[in-house]
């Protein structure tokens, strides 16, 4: 059974480059993979130095349970993980966990798999309700889209209906600077 997940994982950098343009928030992450064959799990995730300055004390409680992209709810969704399992030649399965830190003042949106401002994201307390979207990545059915109308409708009341129906405000009148009269100019 061929999975499309590995293709998705290879294209992860491309997906990161296409982050929500409104937020223009970079993802800060570690390019180091960390094996999470739970016997040798380290106390902290492989995150950049100083991550605690953005997140606060980091709780390293998340454990991968299936392939996909997961918001870390124990760290207020400011950290997210990519989980990928691989089969070795001897038949053992190894679960890999890649941990990333969202940019300052952003959280991982489990609906879109991007880091964005909290007002534009599924609230962190509801992130686990959208973990099922990872099954869309691995689907062999080409008719299954990453997000469908039901997924968006399910998230809309949590995010706020105005997020999906933003209107362009009437432009503010341009500021007209006061013209100064210099002494050498004639008075009219």
From TrEMBL:
Pfam families, alphabetized: CBM_14
InterPro entries: Chitin-bd_dom, Chitin-bd_dom_sf, Scoloptoxin-like
GO MF, any single term: chitin binding
GO cellular component, one term: extracellular region
Residue ranges annotated for the Chitin-binding type-2 domain, each copy included: 61-126
Name listed for the protein in its UniProt record: Chitin-binding type-2 domain-containing protein
